[in-house]
Structure formats: structure tokens, C-alpha cells
């Protein structure tokens, strides 16, 4: 373009031939001037002015840095932040009448832009993967179903109801079962039907409610729901008490169910509620079909299987716990000395009923892949004959050792 102009061609003819505007030709001709074409800087430049109209003057910025240095070295209070700098500038001769002072926020931005801040910015670490406390789940080698219950709902006429809910961690495979009251028996029936239809997960996670865990009045207790999971090859996992985040998936689903089902319609009966809930669950599964398909594979439900609550439990039961100030973990109605150098920290307790061992692993959200073994303890589970009172919880005879 510039070479053509210097060869004698007019600006308009160059613009028509190259298909650009006359202003473009004039711009690059002015940029080249009379310099040799090999020496001209052809890089693009911003059209914005080099200095914004409302930008603080460089002299004021330099004065702010000078005041900060003086305050840092001589201030009796030892304060030299944006507030202290503005206070010192306001006491200069003439005060605010001499030159309008920048605001505290502007002074802070000037200090940041000029690299005069001592404090480090907040380090935002990436969140750990879903199910980070279980290596197989975190690596997507196994699926986890989170189970919970919604309480405190009431139908027209004063009938109280509760909702058993479940959702898978990776696939978002959801389920909801409205009941007059959620018991261990109704939980077992709902999960068994759910797993027969969709397959078995590798893990099933619960909170420490007695309807899931069983009575807390006995040591070494494994309730019927735990025995059901172990009999099907599903590892039961119990989240730590009074800890947030571990049941976040199912708690979020509980909120959505209440907002999209319970709060939107008027239900005259439990059957009507079950009908609306079934429609919502079916719609959520259809929406999550791609995610369900991409989730870890679920095992088929055994064809020839029946539940024997009196069978000796075999397999793995996992407890996520936080140690005390002395590094003691509480589970199964007992206290276990884990590690005195690991106080108030999370541990994963794997109760291996087949091998008769309990293994404690350290857990860190900051480094979720590093889960060293803290301690391994020999464990002999008690053998209890289980029976159930009609309409009541599980009851056990006194423990006997075999």
C-alpha cells in the first residue's frame, strides 16, 4: 500500500484497488512517513488514549507511594495502608483544598497497580473431585448413591409425611418415595426396588440417623439396612456427624424436589403426592439420561437373592469421622486411638468384617489424592441374633463372641 503510494499512485486508486477505505490508506501512509519501509513499526496500536481523562495524575501516585514509605518507616501506629495514607494526605498543608484527594479504594488500586502491597492475594484452590474421600468413587471406577429423608411435611387435614430420597453422585440417577413415615423397613424396600430396576452401586452413603445406621445404644451394631447392603455387595458409607458437604448431592436434590413438587401443587392425599413425585422423578431421569449413561457401570441385581438378617455380615463398612483433640475417632459405639498427631482431622475408617481389621486413613481436602494409612487395628465383631418388634426398630440380644 505505502510502496504503491511512493511509486506515484494516488491514495484513492490504491484504496479502490485494495478494497479498503481512504482513511485506511491515509493512516498507514502517515504511520510510514518518510522512513524506510523496513524500519517502520507496523504493529497494531490501541485506539484508546495513552492516559484516561479521569486517571489519577502521576504526581499524586508518586506522592502516595512516598507517603506509604514514610508511614511504613516512621509511623508510631505502624499503619501504612490506604486508609492511613489518605489520612496522612489530608493533613498536608491546604488539605483537600490543595488538590482533590483520591478515595480509599482508588489509593488501594494505585498501590496494587504499582506493586506496593505486602499481603498476598487469596489462594483459591480447585475443589476436590466428587467423592474424593473414596478413591474408587473419585476415580469414577464406582458409583455412589446418597440416601436421605425429608421431614416436616404435612398434607391437608394434618397428616404428616416424610420422603425417602436418593441420587447417584456421578449419574444423578434420582429417586423419591413419599411415606407416612420413613422407617428402616421402608428404606430397605425402596432401595431394593430402586436397585432391582437400575442396578447396584458400589457404595451407598447415609447419615447417622437410626433409620439408616440402626440403634446407637449398642456397640458393634450393624442394623438390617447395613446387612442388606453387605448382602448385595454394596459398601455402606456413613458421613461424619455435623459436617457439611458430604451429603450435598442428595440435600440439593431434596431442595429441588420440595421446590418443584411440594411447593407447586396442592395434594389431597398421599396417593396424589406419589403420582406427582413419580412424574417429576421420571422427568429428571430423562433429562439426565446422557449423564446416567456416562456414569460408572452399576452391577446387575442378583437373580436368586433373598435377604437373611441373621446371616453373619461380611464385607466392608466405611465411616467418615473427625478425630478429637487427642486424635480419637468414635464409631460403632467405641473410641479408637488413631493418631495423636492427627487431631480434629478427617479420617476414613474401613471396617473389614471379613478380615477382622479396621483401617484408618488420613483425609485432606487440600490434597485429596494423599490418603496415608494412619493405623490398623484388629477387630472382632460381635455376633448378635437379630429380631424386630412389630412396628419398631431392630433389637438385639446381648452380644456373644464366637
How would you describe this structure to a colleague?
This protein is α+β, with helices and mostly antiparallel strands and 402 residues long. It has four domains: 2-39, no CATH class; 58-113, no CATH class; 135-294, 2-Layer Sandwich (Nucleotidyltransferase, domain 5), CATH 3.30.420; 316-380. 33% of the residues lie in helices and 18% in strands. It is built from 13 helices and 13 strands. The strands form three sheets. It has a nine-stranded mixed sheet with strand order 3-2-1-4-5-6-9-10-11. The longest helix is centred in the last third of the chain and has 18 residues, at 270-287. The radius of gyration is 35 Å and the shape is elongated. It starts with a helix and ends in a 6-residue tail after the last strand.
Q: What strand line-up does the widest sheet have?
A: 3-2-1-4-5-6-9-10-11
Mind telling me the C-alpha Rg?
35 Å
CATH topology of the largest domain: Nucleotidyltransferase, domain 5
Please write the CATH class name of the largest domain.
Answer: Alpha Beta
Number of H- or I-type helical stretches: 13
Mean pLDDT: 88
Overall shape: elongated
Share of residues in helices: 25-40%
* Biggest beta sheet attributes: 9 strands, mixed
CATH architecture of the largest domain: 2-Layer Sandwich
- Structural class based on helices, strands and sheet pairing: alpha+beta
Question: What is the string of SSEs from the N terminus onward?
Answer: HHHHHHHEEEHEHHEHHHEEEEEEEE
Number of strands: 13
How much of the polypeptide forms β-strand, as a percent range? 15-25%
Whole-number count of domains: 4
Low-confidence stretches: 395-402
